[in-house]
Amino acid sequence: MTPVIPSGTPPAWAGELAGEADPELVARVVRLAATTWATPERIRQVVDTHLDGPTPTAAAVVETLERLAAAGRSLADEKAVAAAARALAAHRVRVRIPGEPGYPPRLLQAWPELGAPLWLFEWTADGALPDGPAVAVVGTRHPTLDGVATARELAAHLARHGVTVVSGMARGIDQAAHLGAIEAGGRTVGVLGAGFGVDYPRRDGAVRQSVWRAGGLLTELLPGTPPRKRTFLWRNRIIAGLSDMTVVVEGRSGSGALHTARMAISQGRDVMAVPGPVRSPTSRAPLDLIRDGATPLTRIDDVTDALGIAALLAPSPDDTTPPGLSTTAGTVLPLLGASPAQPAALAAQTGATIPAVMAAIAELTARGLAAGTPRGVVRVRP
Amino acid sequence: MVGHAATVAMVGLQAVPVTVEAHAGAGLPGLQIIGSSQAAGQAAERVRTALSSSGVSLPGRKLLISLAPADVPKGGARFDLAIAAAVLAELGVIAHEVLARCVVMGELALDGAVRPVSGVLPCAASIAGTDRRLIVCDANAAEAALVEDLDVVAVDHLGELIDVLTGESPPRGAGQPCATVPPAPPDLADVRGQPEARRALEIAAAGGHHLLLLGPPGCGKSMLAKRLPSVLPPLSDADALEVAAIRSVAGSGSGYLDRTPPFQAPHHSASVAALFGGGSGVARPGVISLSHRGVLFLDELFEWPRSVVEALRQPLEDGVVRVARARATVTYPARVQLVCAANPCPCGGGERCSCTDEAIWSYRARLSGPLADRLDLAPAVQPLTAGDLLQAGGAESSAVVAERVARSRDAALARGWDGLNAHIPAHAVRRTARAQALRILADAVEAGELTGRGYDRALRVARTCADLEGSELVETHHVYEAHAHRLGLRSPQAMLAR
Fold first, then answer.
1. Considering just the CA atoms, what is the radius of gyration of chain B in Å?
2. Calpha distance B316→B453 (Å, rounded)
3. Is the ipTM of this complex over 0.90?
């Protein structure tokens, strides 16, 4: 168990992981990453000790960390370092370090005091993350049908305007956002709450694969690191930091989406929230954010307007009744919204009979204008 | 000469004639029964004691009793009276030719009293129209008298049997038919609000479709289900006799003909045998057969063991249930209308439900695809609102709904269909539908919202909607309505597909 003392000549593997960055610094960072000791919280403490002077460089922070680790006998041994390097190389990972080439520029704005990571493991299909504007679309793992549809449409809209959609790969809103961007032929970046090579979310390898192809995957965790509550909190600051703006689609009180939004605010980024029905538990996080000053997203275009991107397409169609509907379907449609409606209430409201309302519901469902959910009928916008 | 007495054994619902032969011959004194492995020893002792209690002294010879045919399962004490009669004929107490014109059924008490047996109605039906009289105990006489064209003689003691057959006393008939009026089923007027569920109930009644009521606890799912028999047309003579015969075999026969369609609501802890029929030797009818021509109500559908729910599929499809046991495989009719009830989500649902859509979908996945495919209508039953409770005018009564149901069924009969819409082959229904209407269902199949079987079932429901409206052809709005009533039955995958 000989601790690895940083030496002058970087090992052979460092060159491949570094890309255009300094291989020596990359080797030292991988050695630090191989200790379980160098958590984002500990790095933050070290950064804080440097804040009195000029903006500290990554190298300076790394040096202090190495000194502390050596003093506390926390340095990784040669075997662990070699294993970490092998695993990173196996995933064809690039190690990104603040101040070195390839580190995401928006994240660099948050270095060091706003919590940008000291290293990032980046895995992309074409060697670099997409550039240009980026927006994080985040939300609950347990969305409603309407939430999923909103996240998809929002992501597709952003993608069509050349905006990269950033999210956290979780099931629900996050994946809906990734898939919406991919379906629109745009770019998307997934930030993982687990290391590469961990099947999390389980059996979603195909989704990770398609996000990897459409932009890239990022994490600061070594390959094989299992997901934990804190790793998701660490992940959230990277999602917010990578993006010009964070949009929260649906979330319960105390949800991870709320945490991501707070991270974005603390990094000085804009936050938008999609308002939902007041009585729905999935509206809690966005409504609380709006109350506390976030911008409500009232139309899908709002997000591109806020970024200062001109609309590429015609404005979304207004609420005219689609042609060819039966009379009852035409009167039922405007009454439908995101909150589930019951046939009995629709009949009472329109004065139509129950058979007519039931027929109208099935007609609207068949036309893709409404959807039957376990709680009732909701409006769907194609 | 050997003494002969005719009686009837039951194999399932089937009455099988059995001949009892008695012969007194040389050998050790005693009474031995052959041709029946079950409980024969007990029957011999009972008959011997009952005969001596009735003042008949047995000779010091060996009495051999044979029950034929030997390969019919013959359990229980139902042959006691016939055995005693055969012995009496062999001993010359009663005349052979008098006994030859009788069929005798009954269990004997040690003091000679005659006790009731099960399955008297189907037995009586099997000998109606012949010149033979049926001799049963008083308790069975009213039930046997439900069968027309049959002379029923009631006896309450072995002594009375001897007196009647020797001409000492005049035979007693079955007496006046039972004056009991069957209790009326609860009325639909008690149900407030629930327009969607009421409509589904009406369609189900008119077409014989299967129903799944989804709603939070206390919203009135059981209340609605219990009122389905009140809107169904009364049973025809043949159907009522069939229902009574099953009850008779199950041992719960009554002295009057109940024309109200049966309603059975087994608890979800019921065993497979209790539901489908079972018991050792020859299976007895289960709850599903007791609800033949009526309503089988499964409350808390998701609490039922999966094996039981899956086993329901075959009887629902075939209208009969086959139960194999060691001695015989019997077939009981089981043409039931299935009504299920379930909570809409794991927490029970209602206003304060906070289940995620995901949790609801995985809960609904318990309704396995194949069973969901055999249900037709899945209305949501809403929790009552204050407005519903304060509603001044009473809701529609069962009589009004029953009239519409009857009219709808007449429309199906007028087409020449010999069954409920739910049981008509799909190709026959397709011929009465507009091509445009069929197109809608075909599109739904294409979109993954309906399975092939779901297509046929939705079409039959649409046919019933058209009949209720008095429309000759199935129009698009009928098909749309039928599809809307099925929305709650879709698999989670189909819900997410759109």
1. 28
2. 14
3. no
Residues B205 and B336 in one domain: yes
Distance from the A373 Cα atom to the nearest Cα atom in chain B, whole angstroms: 7
Q: Check pLDDT > 80 for residue B490.
A: no
| Closest by CA position to B446, among listed A374, A366, A183, A381 | A366
Q: Which two tokens stand for residue B21?
A: 């032969």
- Which pLDDT score, from 0 to 100, does residue B497 have? 45
Could you tell me the residue range of the domain that residue B71 belongs to? 3-165
Q: What is the pLDDT of residue A314?
A: 45
Number of structural domains chain B divides into: 2
Alpha carbon distance A89, B219 (integer Å): 61
Element housing B23 (H / E): strand B14-25
Tokens of B456: 């046929």
Tokens at A310, concatenated: 């001109």
Are B313 and B406 in the same domain?
yes
- Tell me whether residues A361 and B196 touch, CB distance under 8 A: no
Q: What span, in angstroms and rounded, lies between the C-alpha atoms of A34 and A61?
A: 16
**What residues of chain A lie within 8 A of the CB of B498, using their CB?**
365, 368, 371, 380
Indicate the pairing of strand A134-138 with strand A164-167: parallel
pLDDT tens digits, A130-161: 988 999 999 999 888 889 889 999 999 999 88
The owner of tokens 């109350």 is A291
A327-379: what fold?
A: Arc Repressor Mutant, subunit A (1.10.10)
List the beta bridge partners of residue A188: A165, A215
Mean pLDDT, chain B, rounded, equals: 86
Nearest to B469 by CA among B424, B404, B423: B404
d(CA A336, CA B75): 65
CATH 3.40.50.450 spans which residues of chain A?
A: 134-307
Predicted confidence (pLDDT) per residue in A213-268, tens digit: 999 999 999 999 999 999 999 999 999 999 999 999 999 998 899 999 999 999 88
Decide if B173 is inside a domain. no
Confidence of residue B447 (pLDDT cuts 50, 70, 90): confident
Distance CA A123, CA A144 (A): 31
C-alpha B359/C-alpha B349 separation (Å) is 12
Token representation of residue B35: 């041709």
Q: Which among B119, B97, B183, B173 has a CA at the least distance from the CA of B141?
A: B173
Over pLDDT 70: what percentage of chain B? 92
Q: How far is B379 from chain A (nearest CA, A)?
A: 10
Tell me which residue of A70, A280, A127 sits closest to B355, measured CA to CA.
A280
C-beta separation of A212 from A124 below 8 A: yes
CA distance B440 to A362: 10
Lookup result for tokens 């609860």: B186
CATH number for region A134-307: 3.40.50.450
DSSP secondary structure, B51-109, as one string: HHHTTPPPPSSEEEEEEESTTS---SSTTHHHHHHHHHHHTTSS-HHHHTTEEE--EE-
Q: Is B390 inside any structural domain? A: no
Clarify whether residues B245 and B377 are in a common domain: yes
CATH of the domain at B347: 3.40.50.300
Of B361, B480, B488, the CB nearest to A362: B480
The CA distances from residue A137 to A168, A288, B194, B226, B394, in Å, are: 9, 17, 41, 50, 52
* B477 interaction partners in chain A (CB closer than 8 Å): 326, 355-356, 359, 363
pLDDT at site A137? 96
- Are B360 and B250 within one domain? yes
> DSSP string spanning A127-158?
SS---S-EEEEE--SS--HHHHHHHHHHHHHH
Predicted confidence (pLDDT) at residue A13 exceeds the cutoff of 50: yes
State whether residue A354 sits within 8 Å of chain B by CB. yes
Higher pLDDT, A382 or A199: A199
Torsion of CA B448, B452, B458, B461, to 10 degrees: -170
Q: In chain A, what residues touch B449 (CB-CB under 8 Å)? A: 365
